[in-house]
Amino acid sequence: MKLLIMGAPGAGKGTQATALAERYGVPAISTGDIFRFNIRNQTPLGVKVKEMIDAGEYVPDDMTEAIVGDRLAEPDCEPGFLLDGFPRTMHQVFFLDRYLAERGKKLDAVVSLHVEPEVLVERLLARAEEQGRADDNADTIRRRMEVYAGQTAPLLFHYESKGLLVDLEGTGTVDEVRQRMFDQLDEHIAQR
Ligand code: ADP
To answer: How far is 108 from 164, CA to CA, in rounded Å?
Structure first.
């Protein structure tokens, strides 16, 4: 299974990505987690990206693509993978399309998690209290929403036109969303 999960900040991508990866026995690869790990450990990459991420801006495509390319080349990605938070720009979409095509691989589905903007902001502010992520403050949240709407939301049209999109309503409890996601994916796979 080769899957992507997309959604605005706060949509619950990370939570559902874990469930999805477990279900199909594939690694969940979160570019956000990779960057945060590098920031925490003050690696050269972490030092470079900290300010951008704290400001709610995207990391440059070349850096992000290099990381994803390296990660996908690991043996555990051979049977499949789930990318969470990548691609986020059209440049990254083309990178991934080419990367997979060169290896004779194809995506199976792209899960798009939809949540109303007001709910997103509430969730992110709650997460700020719980986890203290540096990019979960009111100003940065607003910026991340704008960047998502401008750069990432349009990518859904690309995947829709390829017949890969699974449109998922992300409101409800974690369990409800997970069950809905599994049901819709099963239906998507059965219809191919
Ligand atoms: P969220 O769910 O809040 O969007 P993520 O953990 O997915 O958070 O990402 C956190 C931050 O990491 C993003 O706001 C961005 O700065 C950076 N980032 C993650 N993935 C990418 C990517 N594919 N391209 C560029 N920047 C990225």
So the answer is: 7
CA of 108 to the centre of ligand 1 (A): 23
Q: Is the peptide bond before 154 cis (omega within 30 degrees of 0)?
A: no
For this structure, is 48 an active site residue?
A: no
User: What is the reported pTM?
Assistant: 0.94
Q: How far is the CA of 132 from the centre of ligand 1 (A)?
A: 16
Nearest CA to ligand 1 atom 12: 32
Give the tokens for residue 86.
């990548």
Q: Going by CA atoms, what residue is nearest to atom 2 of ligand 1?
A: 9
Q: Annotated catalytic, 40?
A: no
Given the residues 2, 36, 88, 123, select the one marked as catalytic. 88
Instruction: Give residue-wise pLDDT tens across range 43-52.
Output: 999 999 999 9
In single-letter form, the type of residue at position 90 comes to M
* Spatial distance between the Cα atoms of 108 and 192, rounded to a whole number of angstroms: 9
DSSP string covering 92-160, please? Answer: HHHHHHHHHHHTT----EEEEEE--HHHHHHHHHHHHHHH--TT-SHHHHHHHHHHIIIIITTHHHHHH
Provide the 3-class DSSP secondary structure of residue 164: coil
